[in-house]
Amino acid sequence: MNTRHTTIQHRYRRNRLTSTMFHILTYVLLTLFALCIVYPIYFAVISSLKTTAAYSADKVGLPTNPTLGNFTNVLMRMNMLTFLFNTLFLVGVSMVLYFLVCTAAGFAFGKLRFKGRLGIFTFVLFIQIFPQMVIAGQVYQLINKLHLLNTYAGLILIWVAYFAPFGTYIMTTYYSTVPKSLVEAARIDGAGVFQQLTRIMIPIAKPMIGTLGIIGALAMWHELPFSMLVLQRQNLRTLTLGIALMQGEFGLPTPVLTAAILVTSGVPLILYIIFQNYITMGSTAGSVKG
Amino acid sequence: MNLLKRSKKFRLTQEARDAWILLTPLLLLTVGFLVYPVFSNFYYSLTRWKGLGDPVFIGLENYTRMFQDERFYSSLKNMGILVLYIPLGVGLPLLIANTLRNGLKGWKMYRAMLYLPNILGPVILGTIFSVMLSQVGPITEILRRIGFEKANEFYLLGKSVSAIHTLSFIFVVLMRVGFGCIYFLAAMSTIDQNLYDAARIDGTNKFQDFIHVTIPGIKFSIQFFSVLAFIEVFARMYGIIFTLTGGGPGYATNTLEFAVYKLSFSSYQKGYASAWAVVLFFFCAIIALIQIRLIMKEEMS
Q1: CA of B261: which chain A residue's CA is closest?
Q2: Of the candidates A251, A266, A285, which is a domain's last residue?
Q3: Interface test with A, best of B128, B225, B269 (most A CBs within 10 A)
Q4: Do B113 and A160 make contact, defined as CB atoms within 8 angstroms?
Q5: What is the Cα–Cα distance from A98 to B156, expressed in whole angstroms?
Q6: Are A33 and A83 in the same domain?
Q7: Spatial contact of B232 and B171, defined as CB atoms under 8 Å apart
Q8: pTM for this one?
Q9: How buried is residue B8: exposed, middle or buried, by Cβ count under 10 Å (0-12/13-18/19+)?
Q10: Number of compact structural domains in chain A
Q11: Which residue spans within chain A are E strands per DSSP?
């Protein structure tokens, strides 16, 4: 009895010890990772406030005479203000179409029965992972043939086509959890498919607008190869395309480049700071069940 | 009776008709911009073509050339190295999430920071890390200040071996660790707490809990997350390679995906690039099939 008691106590103590060790290890790991991510951003902020000369003199210290010159330079002379408006317009219009396409298709897969449903759904899952580079060359030819080169319409179509399969998958998993009775009611009313879309599908989809919006808009904001192929005129560029090509074109000094980095990620960062909880929790949609 | 039967049949076809109408935009877009390009890519892989004028049919010549091309094998090797980092990219967030399961002070703050790579995106991360790790960048400067005189020889992106490992670590581990923790935490929260209580009565320790309760409980999520990592490596690396290393030094960080871009849009060998794209397509098709099987199996249960 007594020995048994001590072994349990012993085991308990050992458990506590390993668990504390794991806690410390976790803190160390988390801190290291956080440092690897946050330090570059901190570095971008302090460098963007230095003049090129001040940066050469001291690369890692705080700016002594902070200046916004790099930002005005990047926004005006290097056209990033235009890129910002281009991006906002492109992402905005694409998102409306993306939302409609994903909602409609997700509803059909999640709530309607029809022959070939499983087959087409599998097809959607299949094309969802295609790398952009497998299709980029031919997409370029296609866009060229359709006379959509250097037009926003061309890029919007490709973006929606490329990102909608994953969005459709998310909407399908969402709609399949919605009770069928909600849909049946409208069916018996004899509402046409477009009435159903505006009266039922979209209102039901409201809780998903945020999730779908985050996934879609971030993907488009970060997109590079398609924008590079379609938008070949400098003044049409998106922010991401702008910054990707900037380095090669100008061989930029670090303070200017870091200002461009902050301009490019400004809008997503501000939205992230405001909706942080919502964004991090919504990010697992479509991949965690339950 | 007859009328009822007919109306039921009508309702079914009506439902199917609605479904097809709703699917039309998605199908038109994807067939036009994804499926057709894939098929025409198969055709162009059999031709010599610079992107202008008419392609010349040359049979399998591009493929024989590709299988003799050293760059092809080095890009496969590079992808192999990237894949080797996946166990780390999956295992670390899994272990961290397991410790977090019972709560950890300050987790929300860590979460906010670790999720940032997903907000910034691959192009910005590639750009920012290329500045950080540059030979004349801040890391070199800091190393020099703490006493490493030869810090500028410590140029991670400048040497073949360290460049691919740096890229792998940033892309497979650093960029995904935050999302991984959040993902696994969400998955773990669906495990029935009773299972842990039952295990506790059996006198298991935390490690045994992890092996026998947690891992089986979120098996699907672990598999799914691993498949996502493969997708990222095979199909989503263009942006970061373009901005971080440009595929270099030499071909040290070239992947199939990046090679297709280089061949197609830098050296205008579009026919030859298409052959590489076909290989990439088959790799991705295998990954896609694995993912579909996973999803279908999960849906069935």
Answers
A1: A133
A2: A251
A3: B128
A4: no
A5: 40
A6: no
A7: yes
A8: 0.89
A9: exposed
A10: 2
A11: none
Q: Assess if residue A143 is contained within a domain.
A: yes
Residue ranges in chain B assigned as alpha helix (H): 2-30, 36-44, 61-67, 70-84, 86-100, 107-114, 116-132, 138-145, 160-168, 175-188, 193-201, 206-209, 215-217, 219-235, 238-244, 256-261, 270-300
| Interface-testing mutation among A96, A184, A280, A284, with chain B (most B C-beta atoms within 10 A) | A280
> Do A83 and A30 fall into the same domain?
no
Q: What's the pLDDT at B90?
A: 96
Label each residue of B249-273 as H, E or C: CCCCCCCHHHHHHHHHHHCCCHHHH
Q: Give residue A200's Cα distance to chain centre.
A: 27
The answer on A83 and A19 residing in a single domain is no
Query: Are A154 and A238 found together in one domain?
Result: yes
Q: What is the pLDDT of residue B272?
A: 92
Residue A133 lies in domain: 79-251
Taking CB atoms and an 8 Å limit, are B16 and A114 in contact across chains? yes
The model's pLDDT over A76-131, given as tens digits with 9 standing for 90+, comes to: 888 999 999 999 999 999 999 999 999 999 999 988 888 889 999 999 989 988 88
Cα separation, B141 vs A59, in Å, equals: 7
Query: Does residue A111 lie in a domain region?
Result: yes
Together in a domain, A112 and A183: yes
Roughly how many angstroms between the first and final C-alpha of chain A, as a whole number?
Answer: 44
Show me where the domains of chain B are located.
Answer: 1-35, 69-300
Architecture of domain B69-300 in CATH? Orthogonal Bundle (1.10)
**Together in a domain, A84 and A199:** yes
Euclidean distance between the first and final Cα of chain B, in Å? 38
Q: Tell me the pLDDT tens digit for each residue of A171-207.
A: 998 888 888 777 776 666 667 777 877 888 888 888 8
Q: Token match 């497979």: residue?
A: B172
pLDDT at A188: 63
Q: Quote the CA–CA distance of B240 and B246 in Å, as a whole number.
A: 9
Are residues A183 and A121 both part of a single domain?
A: yes
